[in-house]
Amino acid sequence: MARKTGITTQTAKRMALDAGAVYVNYDTESERLIGATREGSTFEVEQDVREPEIDGARGPLKGTRRVVEEHARLTVNMLEMTAENIKLALIGASITDDTDHEVVTRDLDMSAVEHVENIALVADYSGSSNPIVIKIKNPLADGNFELEMDDREEGTVEVQFTAHFDPEDLDTSPWEIRVPKMDDDNDDPEE
Q1: Which residues on neighbouring strands pair with residue 118, listed in sequence order?
Q2: For the chain, which residues make up each domain, given as ranges?
Q3: Phi and psi at residue 106, in whole multiples of 5°?
Q4: Across-strand partners of 49?
Q5: Is 76 helix (H, G, I), strand (E, B) or coil?
Q6: What sign does the CA torsion over 57, 60, 66, 68 have?
Q7: Do residues 91 and 50 make contact, with C-beta atoms less than 8 angstroms apart?
C-alpha cells in the first residue's frame, strides 16, 4: 500500500535543527566563529543544466544532461559587527588601527583579493551527536554592504558569500554537505 505521507520512524532522526553557527575557515587552524546571526542562514546551489537537442529524440534523453555552470552561495545575517566580519563582507577591505578604533577601508585595486579557505554553516542534526556541516570553499562576499540602524533594533548585515572553483581542480564543486551518520546503527533507514 502506498504511503500518504513521507513520515517514517526515522523522520525525527534526520532533521537539521535551528539556525546553527557560521564559521570562517572551519576545521583549520585559523577557524573562527562569525558570531551571532539573526533569522538564520541560507545555503543555495544554483545550477545551469544543459540538455542537448538531438535529432530523433522526442524529448529529454536519459544520460545527456550536464551541469554547465553552478553557483554555491551561503547567505548569513550577521549581528556581530567586528572589524574582521566587516572586512569579510567587503571584498578587498583591510584593517588598520588608530587610537580608539580598528579602521576598515578598501583599496579599489582588486588584483590581490584574498579568499578565505571556507565558510561553513554548522548545525545540530537530530539523529546524531555530530553536526551537519555545509561548507563553501574559496568564498567571497557578493552584493552590497548595507547596515540598517533602526530605533530599538540591532543592526544586521546580510552577506551573501559565493564559492569559487579552485583553478587547479575545475572538476570538483566548491561546496560540500557533511551529513552525519545516525548514532543508532541498528535503525533501518528505509523504514
Answers
A1: 137
A2: 11-48+66-178
A3: -145, 135
A4: 67
A5: strand
A6: positive
A7: no
Phi, psi of 11 (to 5 degrees): -55, -45
- Length of the chain, please? 191
**56-96: pLDDT as tens digits:** 999 889 999 999 999 999 999 999 999 999 999 998 888 99
- 182 burial via Cβ count (<10 Å: 0-12, 13-18, 19+): middle
pTM assigned to the model: 0.86
Q: Strand runs (DSSP E) across 51-189, as ranges?
A: 66-78, 93-97, 102-106, 118-125, 132-137, 140-142, 157-162, 175-178
The 16-24 sheet, strands edge to edge: 32-33, 16-24, 118-125, 132-137, 175-178
Cβ neighbors of 183 (< 8 A, separation 6 or more) are: 127, 128, 129
> Three cell numbers at 21?
553557527
